[in-house]
Design a protein that fits this description.
The protein is of the alpha/beta class and about 850 residues long. It is about 55% helix and about 5% strand. The strands form six sheets. Strands 8-11-12-7-13 form a five-stranded parallel β-sheet, with helices on both faces. A hairpin with a 2-residue loop joins strand 5 and strand 6. The relative contact order is 0.04.
């Protein structure tokens, strides 16, 4: 069985053509042949057949197309010709069955011959390869994806044609390629290399006027079409023709032909300069430069992967270690940045640079990625060369750049945890410790300035999160501005919204170091990264991604882990429970807030926050129900709840109090955030549910709260016709008595409620704070403990007495009146009426 794609799609079996029927079937076959012997994902086949508008049955129809192809292609040709392999299909071809493979082999043979100074053999190989073409690749198949896939094949054909004609000119072919070149130039009028070859061929054939006319045509079309003058090669040739340069008539070495040069003894030295102010990292540098273990078969190339968050100093460490390792690799050191301002660098381009550094030039450098990688490995075989690959973005980018023999060594730095790369060693670079941070500042900004303001220096390092990049920027700014004090710069960094603006000097910035990592994320991970910045929490659990994205928890886990893998989130695992919690590094959080404001509309942000608060409200109510027993129903506290699956809830709330203790800082922040955002029902619901959970698990700061019930304020607040002024006074009294933890949180969302006319809700929150303060106050020694406030709160919560809506405060007043005996009992037990935070409050 043979397949031909270098022209119209053809299938041949036993010398007879096999007609493939069906446009979709031909498109699918073309896509499989373009990636023969590799798995083509089903989604790619769908895109190839339907472009951007596939039907809902597209995947099923692809299966039908595959089944049809299996029936149409002779089964005896090759058993298992098309196999199903997740996530798609693979078409297997052997040597000689696909004309594209024969073309690539012929081109490689021609280039080897050219490199070995055998131009006649090279021309024969090139001509044989070009004869395999019968028109544009896969002509007649209009799929956008197919046309995109064959564009590089048509370009490769043209490049090989140019190389062949160039060799024919250099060897003085008897009839010359002028006629062939005229046709090629007519088909590709903007291709300057063809125009150079044509002008040379015409001049040597004694057609000088025609050669000059070709230059005039080239200049005219370039100016008209592109607005540019001809390139240097064309201009140089034009001048040589006008002056009658004798070198033009010497076919063995025409001026415009770049000779093939091979210098296998050339030793590349591509390492950047080491850093004179390299600081710390003694243990990491020692680990990178220690002799590798030579035990075992010794056939694998030693690879060390250095990872860490952006700006942590991976490149500085790798370059420093590479200079110390250089004497051990006398055959050279190669270095390449794999991320540029435009994104990831194509490994094909890197291989081109490496091959030139190793002594190849001209047509000796293959065109394709695989051929370049093969040539690269061949040149490095048996040589001791150190390869440093900086800021790699994916394993697929690194693999073609790996030598093939163990005499070499590779250092790779990346912002991702490269677990898929077969590395012998992995090092994770942390931020500096405080001493190292101050030392780097002193080396760059001057020791006298740092020593003069030690406290400010420590604060500056903390504001930079001890990141070497940020420290280097602020130290450079101080060095450039000798009239600034360290305190001046600390003050400038104190404005969180401007911190990234301040961490910039010249073309170097912390924002610029984070951006490539962000841009390299999948779309779903970028969206989650932005929405996570909504959370005003010191840390969060993995489930928060689900309500933020509006999807199920399992699906949301993947983008969350992608963020952690790229060091955009820190992960802390509880040693006792094994539960992971995530948090933003502060500078990354600032960047995320910028992207949130720029890329997410206000409506999207509000909806995501509402969904997340709803889930938190549901989980908090469920924790309360489980803690107080199955007989206690969930609180009717308003706010739209979002229910999780029973399995996930069971896992999260196996220990309700432990869960509450873990989430408590976020719950307190969420209450304030909900109130500030106008989600008063959510704020009230979260706040009321914390009352019963907090009294069960007393926190250290809660034990210092004191009772400050003033009878006149309690009576005023509990009166059926209590006014807003009385409730506000009550709120202030509660604030004086209860200044920590849950109490402060219950008060915060209450005050905005007054401003919106939500007297009833605000009153409930204020009174709840007072009641909680009364419940956790320390009674005198030997006194009988008072009943839990939950016993008084439960009836109101379960009956809906504290439901939603504006209105009089009578319902809240009834509960307050029920609290009066409790308050007086506490006072009778000897609890003080004031405390460290108490203050005289006057009703206005």
């Amino acid at each position: 069985m043979e397949f031909r794609i270098l022209g119209p799609l053809e299938s041949v079996h036993g010398g007879a053509p096999v007609d493939i029927k069906g446009t979709r079937q031909r498109t699918v076959l073309a896509l499989l042949l373009l990636e023969a012997n590799h798995i083509v994902p089903t989604d790619r086949l769908v895109d190839g057949v339907w472009d951007k508008a596939p039907p809902t049955t597209s995947r099923g129809q692809i299966q039908i197309c595959i089944s049809s192809l299996r029936r149409q292609l002779p089964a005896a040709a090759l058993p298992g010709l098309i196999t199903t392999r997740s996530p798609g299909y693979r078409l297997r071809v052997a040597d000689g069955q696909l004309d594209l493979h024969a073309f690539e082999s012929g081109v490689a043979a021609g280039r080897r011959a050219a490199a070995e100074r055998q131009p006649e053999r090279a021309i024969r190989e090139f001509r044989a390869a070009l004869d395999l073409w019968h028109g544009p690749a896969l002509a007649g198949i209009d799929s956008r994806l197919v046309r995109h896939g064959v564009a590089h094949l048509d370009e490769r054909r043209l490049v090989v044609h140019e190389e062949c004609l160039e060799l024919e000119l250099a060897t003085g072919a008897p009839h010359g390629p002028a006629g062939e070149l005229l046709a090629l130039v007519a088909a590709h009028p903007l291709r300057e290399r063809l125009r150079v070859l044509l002008m040379t061929a015409l001049y040597r054939a004694g057609r000088q006027a025609e050669a000059l006319e070709e230059y005039r045509k080239a200049r005219e079309i370039l100016i008209e079409e592109l607005g540019i003058e001809p390139g240097e090669d064309l201009r140089r040739l034009h001048r040589a023709i006008l002056s009658g340069d004798p070198d033009l008539v010497r076919p063995t070495a025409p001026a415009m032909i770049e000779p093939v040069v091979i210098a296998p003894t050339r030793v590349p030295r591509l390492l950047p300069a080491d850093f004179a102010d390299f600081t710390g990292r003694v243990d990491l540098a020692r680990e990178l430069t220690r002799p590798r273990d030579t035990a075992g078969p010794g056939t694998a190339v030693p690879i060390t992967v250095v990872t860490g968050r952006c700006g942590v100093g991976k490149t500085t460490l790798a370059v420093h270690a590479a200079h110390r390792l250089a004497p051990d690799f006398p055959d050279g050191q190669l270095f390449a940045h794999l991320t540029s301002a435009d994104g990831p660098v194509d490994p094909r381009d890197v291989l081109g640079r490496f091959l030139r550094a190793l002594g190849l030039s001209g047509s000796a450098i293959p065109d394709g990625l695989e051929e370049r990688a093969e040539t690269y490995r061949d040149l490095l075989a048996g040589r001791r060369v150190l390869v440093v690959l900086d800021d790699a973005t994916a394993e697929s980018q690194v693999l073609p750049l790996l030598p093939g023999t163990p005499e070499c060594r590779v250092l790779v730095t990346s912002r991702r945890r490269f677990t898929g790369l077969p590395a012998a060693d992995r090092l994770e670079v942390p931020a500096f410790d405080p001493d190292g941070s101050v030392e780097l500042l002193a080396r760059i900004a001057g020791r006298h300035r740092i020593a003069a303001e030690p406290a400010a220096a420590v604060a500056l390092c903390a504001a930079c999160e001890h990141l070497p990049l940020a420290l280097r920027i602020v130290a450079t700014r101080l060095a450039a501005r000798p009239h600034w004090s360290v305190s001046d710069l600390v003050a400038r960094l104190g404005n969180g919204s401007r911190r990234l603006d301040e961490l910039c000097y010249g073309e170097v910035s912390v924002r610029g170091s984070i951006a490539p990592t962000y841009e390299g994320l999948t779309p779903e991970a970028r969206r989650l990264f932005r929405l996570l910045a909504l959370l005003q929490a010191p840390g969060f659990a993995s489930w928060v991604g689900a309500p933020l994205l509006g999807t199920d928890p399992l699906r949301a886990q993947d983008p969350l882990e992608e963020l952690a893998e790229c060091y955009l989130l820190d992960v802390e695992v509880n040693a006792g429970t094994g539960v992971a919690r995530y948090r933003f590094p502060e500078l990354v959080y600032t960047f995320a807030r910028e992207r949130l404001a720029a890329d997410e509309p206000a409506g999207v942000r509000r909806a995501a926050l509402e969904r997340t608060l709803g889930v938190l409200l549901f989980l908090l109510g469920e924790a309360r129900r489980r803690q107080r027993g199955a007989a206690s129903s969930g609180p009717h506290v308003g706010g739209r709840q979002r229910v999780f699956s029973a399995e996930l809830v069971e896992r999260l709330l196996a220990d309700p109090l432990a869960w509450y203790a873990q989430e408590r800082p976020w719950i307190l922040a969420a209450i304030r955030q909900a109130a500030a955002a106008g989600f008063l029902e959510h704020a009230r619901g979260l706040a009321m549910s914390t009352v019963t959970l907090s009294e069960t698990r007393t926190h250290p700061d809660a034990g210092h709260a004191v009772v400050g019930f003033g009878d006149e304020f309690v009576e005023a607040a509990s009166a059926p016709d209590a006014s807003t002024r009385a409730l506000r006074a009550h709120l202030r009294l509660a604030e004086a008595d209860a200044g920590a933890g849950e109490f402060r949180t219950l008060l915060d969302p209450a005050d905005p409620g007054y401003g919106r006319g939500e007297e009833r809700q605000a009153g409930v929150l204020a009174v709840a704070a007072r009641a909680l303060a009364a419940n956790v106050a320390r009674p005198r020694a030997g006194s009988v403990p008072s009943p839990p406030v939950g016993d008084l709160v439960e009836p109101g919560l379960d009956s809906g007495a504290f439901g939603s809506g504006t209105g009089p405060v009578g319902d809240a007043g009834a509960w307050v009146r029920a609290m009066i005996p409790q308050a007086r009992a506490l006072r009778a037990e000897g609890c003080p009426s004031g405390g460290p935070g108490a203050a005289t409050v006057r009703a206005e």
